[in-house]
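Feature request disguised as a bug report, sorry. It would help if multi-protein outputs had a clear separator. Right now it looks like this:
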Amino acid sequence: MGVRESYSKSTAPGAPPAGLTGQVPTAAWWLLIIAALLLMLTAALGAWQPALLALSVAIPDGLIAAAVGLSAGGYGYLLLRRWLGQETPVLLKLATSAVAGLWLFSTAVMVVGSTLGGLGPAIWWPVVALGAALAIWQGRSPLRRLKLPRRLPRASLLWVAAALAAGIWLAGATLPAGLTGRLTADSYDVLEYHLQLPREYFQSGQVAPLTHNVYSHYPLGVEMLFLLGMCLRGGAYEGMYLATLMHGLYAAVMAAGIFGALRQAAGGGNAQGGKLADFHARAAALLLLTAPWVLYLSWLASSELAEMCCLALALMWLRQYLHRPGRSCSAMIGLMAGAACAIKYLSVGLIALPVLAVLLAAALWRRRPADALVAAILTAGLFSPWLARNVIATGNPVFPLANTVFGRGYLSSEQAQRWNSAHAPGRRPPAPRPPDYQPPPDEPSRWGRLAGWLVGTRPYESYPVIGSPVLVLLLAGLLAMAAFPRGLSSWDRLLPAVLAIQVAAWMLFTHEMPARFASVCLVPIWLVAATALARLAAIKGDGLPRQGQSPGRNWGMAPAVALLLATAGLNLVSAWHYYRADAGEQRMLAGADASALAQAWFPSEYRGTGKLALVGESRAFYFPPGTVYATVFDPQPLAQLLGGPAGPDDQRRLRQAGIDRVLINWSEIERLRQTYGWPEELSPDRLHQLRQLLPTLHETYLPGSTRTPAQSILAVP
């Protein structure tokens, strides 16, 4: 029997952690929570005026995001309730149903948008309303019995730290897209495809693979939810903040699922468990909600929080499986792993592989290999709609990956080589290799990048990723597992194995090991850290974690609570500094109208009556609808138009293509030439010839330079 197996036997059900005994009035607790959130929001934004603007966006869009989550839970629970099991904690059931329902929503948007083209509010609002009604109807009996207590355990005050974290979250989530994530260049992906693809789909009225944006062939499980938000709000820019809040919604679902699952002591049928199980659950949820990297990701309309949520719920179901093996639990593991794969290709190696591997080991140990097979089949099943879509479009189910095996689709041999070189595990020269190519000096090794990710040194520029206290708890937890294995559950022992597989896959198979790709590794790290705190809290008077009834004072709880509070506090300090450095003075733009920001991004005085063409720039989100662009890995639209020597035909070809403005991002072209590669047809020399032929409307220059333009806007007469 493990330490957590003893929780329900050694304490009264529902007892608060020692050192946090006593009660507080519920009304006072709510006032404290709201005050903490508002104070942190105001402090982060620097004044009460932008805080009010942020709330004017966060409240209505947050309610819509909550309605989508409620609706998803209604559909998901209707389909899964026979599989969820009576012994499963309620919050884990609800979280699993919500994630399953969100997968249904994203798949339905993709299928309907690809075939019928139904991308309007009149179609999707009734769908959301029906799901919300189903959720309320299915929960009618518990809702009737629900009574809010007049007083709450003093342990509930720990959630004040979560309220402070929510203030930082809203401060970043209500900044326009592209104004956060700049320190780590993650804003590039947000503007290039996380938001741009849903915007293109909404404006065209159809979901279709695009030959100018290779990322349209990725699994877009979260981006389809962003598109759903744009449909509900009736516009691409109107749905921008909603998309970011929907991404943050996954963190809330993840915390709820973890809290509910861990609060039930393993082996104890009572949902409250004991005081140690309760502390373990609070510790895990609080470490998650205050983690600097979670708060950073919550400011981005991205997909990593969704991946982390799926992994966390899969691990919670693995815990249930180890307690009561059966195909229902393994099916839920497969559903969560499949939902993760439908979000991002990386989930195959960083989520599905480690989770299914440890499940297979557990199933073989119990002589139930069919359980692992059920999980694998469901994983493939939820992933398959995106694979089928790619087969139809390119013949390659995982396009643009594995293009040497399954075919390169519409990519030329040079473009396929550029993609492969840019995504190879080690650094390779760009394709084509420019004559002046210089490899970057002092390239860090894989182990150097791992160390930088853990402790916040280069190449991550000293910005926090996991938080220093969590790293200490992780190391202490792993050492304690090795030195004092007695009392560990099977689930405890499998968490380091999941983490080891994830880190190995990240180090061996990702290009330059981006920190954002490893964000899913934080889930087992938090859980190991929370287990370390729980084992400390379980220590009795003789210095040993006890099993069952035992004499001696439980002195470990007080230092465990102190460590938890200190860790959460330091996490918030790190997140605060990260936010201030990332957002800078742009914090005053909280709640700004995205259309007005687009006007500032590309003013109307530079717009013509035709199309705008971007060269070297693919962050198209704030540019006018119909802008001609391509990612560096796709065929460049202007490459054929400008083929051959410069001359009067350039102007004629551009006009025939409907283009009357050309924006050239010279600095970005130079970066691409030295990293991924840039087509020779659009070499800087050829573009400078075009610049001499066409009138220049506007130019900006690099700091300290008056010769080399950073960006040029040309008119096509």
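(second protein starts here, but nothing in the output says so)
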Amino acid sequence: MSYIVLARKWRPQTFEEVIGQGHVTRTLMNALLKDRIAHAYIFAGPRGVGKTTTARLLAKAVNCTQRQGASPCNQCDICRSITEGRSMDVVEIDGASNRGIDEIRNLRENIRFAPAEGRYKIYIIDEVHMLSKDAFNALLKTLEEPPAHAIFVFATTEVHKVPPTILSRCQRFDFKRIPTREIAAQLAQICQQENIQIEPESLMLIARKAEGSMRDAQSILDQMISYTDGVITVQSVQESLGLIQEELYFEFTELMRQQDDRAILNYARTIFHSGHDLMDYLYGLENHFRNLLLARAGQGGELIDTSDHFRGKYLELAEQFQEADLIHYIDLLVQHENLLKFSPNPELVLELLLLKLAHKPRVDELSELLELLKRGDFSGGQAVPTRRSGVPSASGGQTSVSSPSGSPSSARVKEPPNPFAGLLGKRPAARPEPDVRPASQAQAEASAISFQELQRRWPDFLDQLMTTRPTLATFLQEGVLHSLKGTVLEIGFDVRNRFHREHVQQNKGSIETALRAHLGASVHIRCVELDFQQLGIEKPVHSPEEILEDLRKKQPLLNRIIEKFDCELWESPSSKNP
């Protein structure tokens, strides 16, 4: 007798043997027990999940003469003839080859004849969605009112192509992909019965490669039996099927942690020149991060479809990642699928993708930066250097004073969430109107501080502000104290420093609050434009780029933010064209 492939030899012969389709077999078995057999069924689902097998089981069950319960006996003549494919009462039609209206007309003519030996005549049409529109229309009337002895079973992998008029006349059953572990368990049983030696990890590789299809898994197992002489090992399965070793994905996650660009580029080159399909590698990397996400979700990694060895590695490695990071990695990989698939230079795309994954900011790093911003710790945990400078006045004079030994904690004030507004890409708000108050209100808030006293204490105020608002303090140092009119302090900025003046004017509320805490008196800020050259004020004019570079040297936190988010300096149109 010729060899019978495993997919045929191990085809289920009872409803209980059907794997992974309990929602279908239970309904059909109950219908058989209650004698509620419909005249038309449609079985929809992926390939190799048991649609045609279930249709044959139904044909045997309704015609079995010795049936006990719902499943056929497989011993009577009718059951054996159906199993062997020689029954006159079970007609299997290929919808792709017999899709025209003439074939359906012949079916309508033959359906009138009674069954040859059984109770019912069953018509099984595979890939029914391939029938033409005219063929479907010719089938409608017969399908709606068939002879009492006729049962139709339609199988399709693309149920959306079946006309609604056909679907409405059938009982629909949706077959699911079979879980990987159930496929592996069935393969293990087959190997045990067939005396085939195979490693458990090899079973999982074959089951994952089958992608939910039992028939595909059995066909792959057949191929592996022919490929190897002895034990079917993981290496032999990977070599025969061209699978990528899972260790390569763990190797990449280690390179991500090290952020070694040279090693990552060498890794990408190895993947590309090894002959692996890059899309298979990409899908495998997506599944790798998905497994890490499942491991982070808990439950001991029960949802991870892999061997016990790799499941343990996933549980151990997952502790180094946050859920949000893993979701971002998977999202980035999905976004690059089409780019990698259709790019004329896939090696470059792969290198770029792996480098992006390695350098993508981690959630814990961003959280640390945000916490430092919230606390106002702009030094990034380091001491902030105190800037020593005199206080130039509008006449060009300076008053030098010594800095206090420390800034009192009571002088720290609550700051807005973004202390770098206007410098790191955020557009400054519209310039507010000058702060003009009624004379009565100005007198009520009259400050006891003089302009000379304010000049004397101004350097200490700037030093203190540098610890909480370094960017604002640096911009404020570009101006000069011009005058004190009542409670309104005018700060002059050179006409070439409009960018700095706008930034200070935008944040004058914060400056006034800090001044009130430092001086113990209410002072209102007004920014004015001056021509430093005409007034003889010798004060260098710094560009925004120079200030940013100076801040990057002195403020570690600002430097980290610029590097993490790849920030660029934004200048308002007014600052470019004063």
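Even a blank line would do. Unrelated, but nice: The first strand starts at residue 40 and ends at 44.
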